[in-house]
C-alpha cells in the first residue's frame, strides 16, 4: 500500500510539473516611467533634475542603451500623474534597474517590460520602485501590432 501511495504522489507531481505553461513572450525592452506630482513645484523640480541626470548618464555611457521620451506635465495614457519615460533595450535591464534603484530619490518609478501584450505588461509583469500608483488600465490595448524597441530618437524630447 505504501508503494502505491508513493507512486500516486509522484505521478501527480509529474503531471502538475508537466502541465505548467511558462510564458515565452519575447521582451524587447523596458520602460521606466518616472512619476511626479505635477502641481507640486518641489516634486516637479526633482523630476526635472532627475531627468537631466538620466540624460547625462545616457551621454556618459552608463545608460547607453536607453533614451528619454517627453516630459508630461499632465496624466497621459494609463499614468495618473505627471511623468516621463526612459526606454531601455533588453540588454540594459540590470544596469538601468540598479541605477534607478539607487538614484530615484523621492520619485516613484513604474517599470514594465515591452511585449505585444500591453495590459499584461502594465499589470502582472510590472513593478514599482517607491509608492505604487493605480493605473488607468482602460487606456491600454490588449495586443499591440508593434513594440517599442527603444531605438534612439531622431528628434529632441527636451524638457
UniProtKB/TrEMBL annotation:
Stretch forming the signal peptide? 1-19
Q: Does the keyword Signal apply?
A: yes
Which keywords belong to this entry? Answer: Signal
UniProt keyword Disulfide bond present:
no
Which superkingdom is the protein from? Eukaryota
- InterPro entries recorded: DOPA_dioxygen (IPR014980)
Q: What is this protein called?
A: DOPA 4,5-dioxygenase
Q: Which Pfam families does the UniProt entry name for this protein?
A: DOPA_dioxygen
